[in-house]
Design goal:
single chain, alpha+beta, globular, 98 residues, 3 helices
Length: 98
């Protein structure tokens, strides 16, 4: 499976769609738990900046079409970094509060 952007063909990034969906479901479940405890599921600016700097230094982080993403999990960085319940597949972030 490939997709086309600006006339070039790129292979999909990261693991298969089912693995990505499973990771997303886990993040959503942990986010719901945070909300149920009265906590915000959105990370603060400092946490997002910390995660971004860790990701940008990682060999699995790729800036490419269509956006910056992680090759291990296939997540788009702009969507994953602000999610407090999200986890780094390479275990480089501290674990989010459960």
């Amino acid at each position: 499976m490939k997709f086309r952007i600006t006339g070039r063909i790129y292979p999909p990034a990261g693991p298969p769609l089912l693995a990505r969906a499973t990771g997303l479901a886990g993040t959503l479940a942990r986010s719901v738990k945070l909300v149920a405890r009265g906590k915000s599921p959105v990370a603060g600016r400092d946490e997002v900046a910390r995660r971004r700097s860790i990701c940008q230094a990682c060999e699995h982080f790729t800036i490419g079409p269509p956006r910056a993403y992680c090759k291990l999990c296939g997540c788009v960085a702009a969507w994953k970094l602000p999610a407090l319940a999200a986890r780094c597949p390479a275990n480089r972030w501290l674990r989010a509060p459960e």
